Amino acid sequence: MRMRFYPGLLPLFSLTVLLAGCGLFERTEQLALPETVEEPEPAVVEQVPVEYRVLHKADYNLDDRETFKNFAILDNYASYQSELSKFSVEVPRTIDFANQRVVLLTMGTQPSGGYAVGVKSVVKEPERLLLTVELLGPGAGCQYTQAISNPYEFAAIDTFLPGELPVEFIEQVKTKTCE
Fold first, then answer.
1. pLDDT (0 to 100) of residue 24
2. Residue 178 and residue 140 in contact, taking contact as beta carbons nearer than 8 Å
């Protein structure tokens, strides 16, 4: 295959290179660099620890019926007494429902012993209560019963009336270490 040479294109190409070198095609305005934007520091949310006390806690319910994982806030004596009667024959504790709530934590039916559920911490923020729940399971080498279990806990927490705050549950799943 033979290449063709077009002599008229050579001067046109040379003129383009010459003009580009002289700055004819240069930008006359400066490109504006973006301003440096400082990111605001994250807002520090005030957290105040809230006292709580365990009212009832066990690994088994009364009739070995199947249960499911559930975190609930009980805001009156009737609901507290009703829920407690499903798990235990214990007498309900005295609670001031004008200033406290009862938290019911159930882990649900588990295949063996060695499981536990409970309140780890309660913290008040301006817009909510954060309730951290620890779910504990048996680790390798742990000895536990082979019976089906239904871990639960009832705990009393202080509320902040008027304008009761919503409760947000945070789960922390852990495994026991046994040696």
1. 47
2. yes
pLDDT in tens, 83-126: 999 999 999 999 999 889 999 999 999 999 999 999 999 999 88
**Distance separating alpha carbons of residues 173 and 52, to the nearest angstrom:** 20
Instruction: List, in order, residues 6 or more apart from 174 with CB less than 8 Å away.
Output: 134, 135, 136, 137
Question: Which pTM does this prediction carry?
Answer: 0.73
DSSP state letters, 101-145: EEEEEEE--BSSS--EEEEEEEEE-SS-EEEEEEEEE--TT----
Backbone φ and ψ for 168, nearest 5 degrees, come out as -115, 125
Q: Could you state, in order of their start, the residue ranges of all structural domains in the chain?
A: 48-175
Looking at this protein, which amino acid is placed at residue 96? D
